[in-house]
Design a protein that fits this description.
The chain is an all-alpha fold. Helices cover 77% and strands 0% of the residues. The protein has 4 domains: 162 residues, no CATH class; 192 residues, Phosphate transport system protein phou homolog 2, domain 2 (Methane Monooxygenase Hydroxylase, Chain G, domain 1), CATH 1.20.58.220; 122 residues; 173 residues, no CATH class. The protein contains 27 helices and no strands. The chain is globular, with a radius of gyration of 29 Å. The relative contact order is 0.08.
């Protein structure tokens, strides 16, 4: 048993690395950073090697996610940006006032990089580091400037060489498959949450826990769409990635089926279900989870042995479903109807998994990049149209991004000014910490500041001890290599641990120049505390993004989006053929509202009287989206359509009337909401009649709409109360 636990942990680590390769990213960073240092030590050019190493490290902070073309553009773009900001930093570091003004410009641009997504955050750190470091060690002559630019260019070229070498041997469509595999993994986590409580021992998952797992699925889908934006409806069979686009759609539909299963089980009282049925239900869910886990690995590896394991999981799952079907569920009670529907939805999810395996077979062999990219195709990777599109995204000004960019610029400029005015030794860590700690939301800024201080203090203590250990041949270089890998591995998991390894890395790199000592470690710690304090104060005082103001707007946008989803489903001439697009939009708006609510609960205010109303409204709206998903999912599986009866039309008009009542209240809460209201009419030609299951979903939707109306009335009255008081006074 003692041997089994480490093996399970190792197996889990290998599987996690297969899905999210942070170690390979860390290896790229470690190789690009340490090899120039070793070369500098062996040739006696450690100062020059340090600039090459620092440049490569700066650019390596950008993860090479996405296709070969996207990765190549990141490598070359990072090198160009490093040169540009190295020039700006080198020529502005001689004057504190000019340097501070330049810092405002650089900080604002770094804040705008958030428009480019996750890669943008890495690029922001890259350009910021280059400017800060070159500004701290300015050049005084033209010859010095050109000498430094040569070193920076060599560092950028060396990093590009390492990155391209890794990318060239990667299977061409592996990055796309990896984004889909992460959705399968999130689906497995979702069904695990749904299964809790059915074994008779564990506690049943709350609605909030299940929704958090649903958000993970939504996040994985959004991440995939960010890198590969062409959806299944936009692809044609001639497209190279058509099978993968269809595979991603099937993966998202599996999540929709799991959520539908969760909704059906809400109507089931476990006390009234026999132990045998509960255990069979739990066995089905766990088998489905195992199949989804294996599917995630198979999508990445495409190994025959993984396909065999997946087939055995599906075979076992089908047998367990057959055993569950043998239960006595003939009586049409609410509970039995829900259980039969659960079985049906599970069978559909299995069919989607089986069709997904077929999509992977359609894809054929996935050759390495150097085999699948011709010379012309490789050259087109750097076509100017890609740079123009990224520039348009970068300078897409909006209130949210502009506020964050301005806070970043001011906080970093204050830090740089204080460091240079008081001539703090290695004071560049003050503006650098202020920039890294600064987050779009105040609560996140405080959290990151505390984590960075903890990691820095611990890293300084350990780094100081490492300096006192007699180092053998290249021992410190080996420790540096390991710390760089671990730093990247923990950057998303635990930032405090990542900051710990960042500090040790800094100590070891500076020690190569024999400049690291106890005083430097103390200065580093105090600079980190000062930078974190500047970020927190600036985030609080300068144009803060308070969700007390934005939460009602996120909520009204989510309600309006569901209204549009309803209209597209029932009042379009062709039904709703591309309903998954409306589904994605509604779920994203719901997710925005839920995230805003969580941030609102963490904000430093004593008046949160409306939090219960907000939570209920978000819950009602999420359920409305789910019912619309269920209706469209049921519609997609129908082989024949029926004409809507008078009772169906009356029910649909009733729902539309309550939607309209709610939308009128939404427009009172948010006067800028200009969603057009469609008045119910007996002349409406609804495109299809409703099945038995769809009727149930419509009745549930009507209940949610009526409950939502009461909460909206209360919220609208509270929102308008201050205005009435002001008019009276």
């Amino acid at each position: 048993m003692r041997l089994q636990l480490p093996y399970q942990q190792f197996h889990k680590l290998v599987e996690q690395e297969t899905l999210e390769p942070t170690f390979s990213w860390g290896m790229r960073l470690a190789i690009a950073t340490t090899i120039p240092l070793i070369f500098g030590l062996s040739t006696g050019h450690i100062v020059e090697a340090s600039w090459v190493s620092l440049t490569a490290e700066c650019i390596c902070w950008v993860e090479l996610r996405g296709s070969f073309g996207q990765g190549a553009r990141v490598l070359f773009g990072g090198a160009i940006l490093a040169i540009l900001f190295a020039v700006l930093g080198s020529i502005t570091g001689n004057n504190v006032w000019i340097g501070t003004v330049a810092m405002v410009l650089v900080g604002f641009i770094a804040g705008l990089f958030r428009n480019l997504g996750e890669r943008g955050q890495g690029l922001a750190v890259s350009v910021f580091l280059m400017f800060i470091l070159t500004n701290a060690f300015p050049t005084r002559t033209t010859d010095e400037l050109f000498a430094r630019l040569n070193l920076v260019a060599i560092g950028g070229g060396w990093n590009a060489l390492v990155g391209l070498f890794i990318l060239m041997f990667m299977p061409a469509r592996e990055p796309y498959r990896r984004t889909i595999a992460l959705i399968w993994k999130a689906n497995a986590s979702l069904i695990d949450a749904v299964a809790k409580g059915w074994d008779g021992r564990s506690q049943r998952s709350s609605i909030r826990n299940i929704y958090l797992r649903e958000q993970e699925v939504r996040s994985a889908i959004d991440q995939s769409l960010h890198f590969y934006s062409k959806t299944a409806s936009q692809s044609s069979e001639e497209d190279r990635d058509y099978p993968l686009a269809q595979l991603r759609k099937a993966t998202a539909l599996v999540a929709t089926h799991i959520i539908a299963i969760s909704d059906e089980l809400d109507d089931v009282s476990r006390r009234d279900v026999t132990n045998e049925t509960k255990l069979k239900m739990h066995a089905v869910f766990k088998a489905l989870q195992q199949a989804l886990d294996r599917m995630a690995v198979y999508v990445i590896t495409l190994k025959p042995e993984e396909e065999l394991l997946l087939s055995s999981r599906l075979m076992r799952l089908n047998k367990l479903i057959s055993l569950l079907r043998e239960e006595d569920l003939e009586e049409d009670t609410t509970q039995n109807i829900a259980l039969r529907r659960t079985i049906q939805l599970t069978e559909r999810a299995v069919r989607l998994i089986e069709s997904s395996i077929g999509r992977l077979e359609e894809m054929g062999d996935d050759e390495a990049v150097f085999r699948s990219y011709s010379l012309i195709k490789t050259l087109l990777v750097l076509h100017p149209k890609h740079w123009v599109r990224n520039l348009q995204l970068l300078f897409n000004f909006n209130t949210f991004t502009a506020r964050y960019a301005l806070r970043t610029a001011v906080g970093a400029a204050i830090g740089l000014f204080l460091a240079q005015w008081y001539q703090v030794d290695r004071g560049y860590w003050i503006p650098l910490t202020a920039m890294i700690v600064m987050q779009p939301y105040f609560g996140a800024t405080i959290k990151k500041g505390i984590e960075r201080i903890i990691g820095t203090v611990a890293g300084s203590i350990v780094g100081g001890l490492l300096l006192r250990i007699p180092a053998g041949l290249y021992l410190k270089e080996f420790i540096l290599f390991v710390c760089l890998v671990l730093m990247v591995h923990y950057i998303r998991k635990r930032y405090s641990v990542a900051a710990f390894f960042v500090t040790i890395t800094l100590v070891l790199m500076l020690n190569f120049e024999a400049s690291a000592d106890d005083q430097m470690l103390l200065t580093r710690t105090l600079s980190t505390i000062a930078g974190s304090a500047i970020a927190i104060i600036t985030g609080f005082a300068l144009l803060p993004h308070w969700d007390k103001k934005w939460l009602p707007l996120h909520l009204t946008n989510a309600i309006s989006c569901n209204y549009q989803y309803f209209l597209a489903t029932f009042l379009s001439l062709d039904g709703n053929p591309n309903w998954t697009r409306n589904k994605r939009s509604a779920e994203s708006k719901n997710s925005n509202a839920f995230d805003s609510f969580n941030r609102y609960m963490q904000e430093p205010t004593l008046h949160k009287k409306n939090y219960a109303i907000y939570y209920h409204l978000i819950t009602h709206n999420v359920r409305l989206t789910r019912e619309l998903n269920n209706i469209n999912m049921e519609q997609e599986t129908r082989k024949t359509l029926s004409e809507p009866t008078e009772a169906h039309s009356e029910l649909l008009n009733h729902c539309l009337a309550w939607f309209n009542k709610n939308l009128l209240l939404v427009q009172k809460i948010d006067p800028n909401n200009k969603t057009k209201i469609k008045v119910p009419s007996l002349t409406f030609q609804y495109p299809f009649g409703l099945t038995m299951h769809q009727l149930v979903y419509m009745e549930k939707m009507l209940i949610e709409l009526k409950a939502m109306n009461q909460n909206l009335h209360e919220l609208a009255d509270r929102q308008l109360a201050p205005e009435k008081l002001e008019l009276t006074s």
